[in-house]
Amino acid sequence: MASNDRNGFFSRLFRRRPVVPVVRLSGPIGMNMPLVSSMSLASVSKQLDKAFGYKKAAAVALVVNSPGGAPAQSHLIHQRIRQLAEKNKKKVIVYVEDVAASGGYMIACAGDEIIADNYSIVGSIGVVSASFGFEKMIKKLGIERRVYTSGDSKRQLDAFLPEKPEDIRRLKALQTKIHEDFIALVKRGRGKRLKSSDKTLFNGEYWLAEQAMEYGLIDGIGDLRGTLQKRFGKHVLTPLIAPASGFFARRIPGMSGAILPDDWARTALAAADERALWGRYGL
User: Fold this and answer.
1) Whether pTM exceeds 0.85
2) Between the CA atoms of 270, 274, 280 and 281, what dihedral angle is there, to the nearest 10 degrees?
3) Positions marked catalytic
4) Segment 240-262, tens digit of pLDDT
């Protein structure tokens, strides 16, 4: 009987411990290619749903480590976090590891509070597009490229054709619109905590955590475990909500059988893009 009472006591004690589920949001955003790790709404939605589904959770913690990527996927993830937070009435605490830049910072702005390490890189609130120009190379090699289209603008900014000023103007107009929306999102999320001019904050520059905190882009410096213990007590439980693991869970959606040579070529380019994204921040 005493043993049962003891077990019941520890069971009740365990249930009383505050819980803050943790979700890791890591990697470049929206680069869905074979063998290239990437983050998208589809890849993180189940973990987010599960974390926010903890009815007795004191809050939800998100660990962000991303150099950015596709604006649409960044925005979709941001929106899903805010929708779940409001629906479940949960506070969201974001912790930045190595970097939350560009689309990574857009996701971080879904948090009610952003904490970072001293050496975390934060910011890069801007829009960038990059490509290569191969028209001179294929001429030199004597290669003829044949593309057939319906629609005058279907070959805008084709890497195998010379640039056209009107195509660049169209691209810059798109970038300007995305940048304006990004700025508005940051201002909604950070509000009066922002402490510098638009020219300083939104020119695409990035900073270490101390400077980012002075500008109001983050709220504090520390580590996730220590922050949660200060906030919710030293016995706080922090279960990691991880994606499914195992061979079948790692299969690429829509893929079956061997990877074709063309897939390998696209994967190599995507891997180079991924490496370049991290490399911009010295990582």
Assistant:
1) no
2) 180
3) 102, 154
4) 998 865 444 444 343 333 434 44
